């Protein structure tokens, strides 16, 4: 019998024959050694399920000549992830994931949990490439094959042997060896933005995930080349990096400001070279707070690499003698930069009036000795604040009006450079500066398109896209009962301590507070975003408690594994169209060009924050009945 390996991330591993012959108490003791804090309920579950699994394994052996080379792995801990699928079976041509539940029926949360295991093994485990990965939920009190739901099989223990045989395709290659599967470097999952920032700040590098690298590496290399060229030629560059939501723009920006080569390119100043040759700037206060929180947690200086745009403008607009220490300024969400009116409103007492944010930053860049690169990260359709509606034309106006536009070269994809059509400023087109692949949503590539069609009122297209998303492991769920939504998320992620899920709601809704969704200004203004996004259930401010609510202003640019989106009455379906007549109004004198578009953009943000999916809670209000029906028509599955 295989001896226990204290370094291996699993409780039990053996061939089918060894597992089938082992005493159940020995298997259970091995699992307890691996999980010493297992609850009494967990131990009872092992005692109930292990003999049933052994019976099914023996029946597979009787029916298949190759089964002697199959492997059973129990309580396999996914590296860098902390989740543990109950059972992994390595069989002919396939990997089978079993999730055991001590009940007679499978809840939707059970099915979605199993689907996520299969999805992540397909997408991030090197040894699973080119092999079938199947997920089975096993209600241990059930009998027979029950159903296939959301791409997951549901079957009682007695049906496992026949189901496992049925799921094995003809396969010319050898059975996957356990040693190869269990290699610690074989599984490399896609981190969340918070996890990625934490890794980057601590080690200066990110784990390499093939799909994510293929999507973002060309842009990183292109920008690095532009930076080197600017330093060598003593010129100034504006780089426009565009991308769909969830395509990794922020990670590209963070990688650039942490690039070690910048230290060698910085021009000495009085007192020596600047200590921080690059800075990541964002007008998104919650994003800055979260990144600075992670910097502090990682042992770095909270404001060394990440700064708030408003404080940066305040610091360097008080006199032209103030010279930014950096050579590379990365401006997050550059298309949302404030126009002159908004800067006037917020900075007039500080001497910053008369200029837009792009004009300020181009002017700051002109003060930097010898060379400078301004990188604008550009997303589409996410303008949600007053003063953000002017778009990229402000950057053209800023460069053309800087007094010496001949010093500048603008780089970007064709779509972004359209704003510079007819401009005397030199432009260079680079398709590598367009991130067109969603990587936030694991293997799902159509979330952004689905949201776009939902907001456009195209239910037929939504339904088709939603079916594709479901098959890829991205789940859309809906309920009119807040308690059902909360229980689903808590059950779904109970065994996933590193996962983050929380409540989001629109800031312009005025009815959710009646249903316990505290999205009002008083409740949200003092929320601590760093702990909300970063802490686990042990932290009192963690999003996992489903207590504090984040609005579109606290969610934009950030992400969770799953979202509980409380749909408000500020965007409702009426007679087949969207209506915002019930939205909370803006303050008198506020200059809003298109409040309806800002509402659509807010919900676009809210609907694209969950990496695994979105659970929508539609309160039981008559005014929201048509909205709930429309969302179901668009592909949301009723819990």
Describe this structure as you would to a colleague:
The chain is of the alpha/beta class and 639 residues long. It has 3 domains: 170 residues, 3-Layer(aba) Sandwich (Trna Endonuclease, Chain: A, domain 1), CATH 3.40.1350; 243 residues, Rossmann fold (3-Layer(aba) Sandwich), CATH 3.40.50; 192 residues. Helix content is 37%, strand content 17%. The chain has 24 helices and 23 strands. Strands 8, 9, 10, 11, 12, 13, 14 and 15 form an 8-stranded parallel sheet that branches. It has a 7-stranded mixed sheet with strand order 1-2-3-4-5-7-6, with helices on both faces. Strand 20 and strand 21 form a beta hairpin.
Beta-strand percentage range: 15-25%
Number of DSSP strands?
A: 23
**Broad CATH class of the largest domain:** Alpha Beta
Q: Assign the CATH architecture of the largest domain.
A: 3-Layer(aba) Sandwich
Number of helices: 24
Based on CA inertia axes, which overall geometry fits? globular
Distance between the termini: 45 Å
Give me the Rg, rounded. 27 Å
Determine the fraction of residues in helical runs and give it as a percent range. 25-40%
Question: Can you lay out the helices and strands and say which pair or pack?
Answer:
Blueprint: E1 12-15, H1 16-21, H2 24-34, H3 40-63, E2 71-74, E3 87-91, E4 94-101, H4 108-124, E5 132-139, E6 145-149, E7 152-155, H5 160-166, H6 178-181, H7 193-203, H8 210-233, E8 236-243, H9 249-257, H10 262-265, E9 278-282, H11 285-297, E10 306-308, H12 309-316, E11 328-331, H13 340-347, H14 357-367, E12 372-378, H15 393-400, E13 408-412, H16 414-417, E14 426-429, E15 434-435, H17 447-456, H18 459-471, E16 475-479, H19 482-492, E17 501-505, H20 521-524, H21 529-534, E18 549-550, H22 552-555, E19 560-566, E20 572-574, E21 577-579, H23 595-607, E22 610-617, H24 625-633, E23 637-638
Parallel strand pairs: 4-5, 5-7, 8-12, 8-13, 8-15, 9-10, 9-11, 11-12, 13-14, 16-22, 16-23, 17-18, 17-19, 19-22
Antiparallel strand pairs: 1-2, 2-3, 3-4, 6-7, 20-21
Helix pairs in contact: 2-3, 3-5, 4-19, 7-9, 7-11, 8-9, 14-15, 17-18
């Amino acid at each position: 019998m295989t001896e226990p390996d204290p370094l291996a991330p699993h409780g039990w591993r053996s061939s089918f024959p060894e597992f089938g012959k082992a005493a159940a108490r020995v298997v259970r003791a091995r699992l307890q050694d691996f999980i010493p804090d297992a609850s009494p309920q967990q131990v009872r579950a092992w005692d109930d399920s292990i003999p049933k699994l052994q019976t099914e394994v023996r029946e597979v052996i009787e029916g298949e000549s190759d089964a002697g080379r199959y492997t059973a792995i129990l309580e396999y801990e996914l590296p860098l992830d902390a989740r543990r699928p109950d059972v992994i079976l390595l069989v002919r041509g396939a990997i089978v994931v079993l999730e055991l539940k001590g009940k007679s029926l499978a809840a939707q949360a059970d099915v979605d949990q199993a689907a996520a295991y299969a999805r992540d093994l397909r997408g991030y485990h090197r040894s699973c490439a080119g092999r079938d990965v199947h997920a089975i939920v096993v209600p241990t009190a059930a009998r027979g094959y029950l159903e296939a739901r959301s791409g997951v099989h549901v079957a009682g223990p007695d049906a496992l042997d026949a189901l496992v045989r049925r799921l094995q395709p003809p396969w010319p290659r050898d059975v996957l060896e356990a040693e190869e599967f269990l290699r610690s470097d074989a599984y490399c999952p896609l981190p969340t933005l918070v996890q990625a920032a934490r890794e980057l700040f601590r080690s200066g590098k990110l784990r390499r995930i093939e799909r994510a690298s293929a999507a973002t590496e060309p842009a990183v290399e292109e920008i690095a080349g532009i930076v080197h060229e600017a330093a060598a030629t003593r010129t100034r560059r504006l780089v426009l990096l565009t991308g769909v939501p969830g395509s990794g723009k922020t990670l590209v920006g963070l990688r650039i400001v942490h690039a070690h080569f910048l230290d060698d390119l910085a021009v000495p100043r009085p007192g020596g070279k600047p200590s921080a040759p690059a800075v990541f700037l964002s007008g998104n206060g919650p994003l800055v707070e979260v990144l600075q929180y992670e910097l502090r947690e990682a042992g770095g200086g909270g404001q060394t690499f990440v700064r708030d745009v408003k404080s940066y403008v305040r610091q360097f607009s008080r006199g032209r003698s103030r010279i930014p220490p950096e050579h590379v300024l990365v401006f997050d969400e550059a298309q949302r930069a404030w126009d002159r009116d908004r800067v006037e409103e917020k900075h007039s007492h500080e001497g910053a009036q008369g200029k837009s944010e792009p004009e300020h930053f181009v002017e700051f860049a002109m003060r930097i000795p010898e060379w400078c690169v301004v990188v604008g990260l550009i997303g589409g359709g996410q303008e949600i604040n007053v003063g953000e509606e002017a778009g990229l034309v402000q950057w053209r106006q800023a460069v053309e009006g800087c007094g010496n536009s001949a010093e500048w070269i603008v780089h970007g994809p064709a779509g972004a450079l359209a704003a510079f059509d007819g401009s005397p400023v030199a432009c260079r087109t680079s398709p590598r500066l367009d991130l067109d692949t969603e990587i936030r949503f694991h293997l799902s590539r159509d979330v952004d398109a689905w949201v776009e069609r939902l907001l456009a009122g195209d239910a037929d297209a939504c339904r088709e896209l939603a079916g594709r998303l479901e098959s890829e492991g991205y789940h859309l769920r809906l309920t009119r009962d807040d308690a059902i939504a909360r229980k689903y998320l808590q059950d779904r992620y109970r065994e996933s301590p590193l996962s983050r899920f929380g409540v989001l709601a629109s800031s312009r809704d005025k009815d959710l507070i009646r249903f316990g969704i505290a999205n009002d200004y008083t409740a949200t203004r003092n929320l601590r975003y760093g702990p909300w996004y970063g802490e686990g259930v042990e932290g009192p401010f963690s999003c996992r408690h489903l207590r504090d609510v984040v609005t579109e202003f606290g969610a934009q640019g950030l992400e969770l594994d799953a979202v509980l989106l409380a749909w408000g009455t500020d965007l409702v379906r009426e007679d087949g169209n969207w209506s915002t007549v019930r939205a909370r109004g803006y303050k008198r004198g506020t200059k809003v060009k298109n409040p309806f578009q800002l509402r659509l953009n807010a919900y676009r943000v809210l609907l694209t924050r969950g990496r695994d999916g979105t659970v929508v809670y539609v309160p039981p209000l008559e005014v929201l009945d048509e909205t709930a029906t429309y969302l179901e028509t668009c592909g949301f599955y009723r819990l």
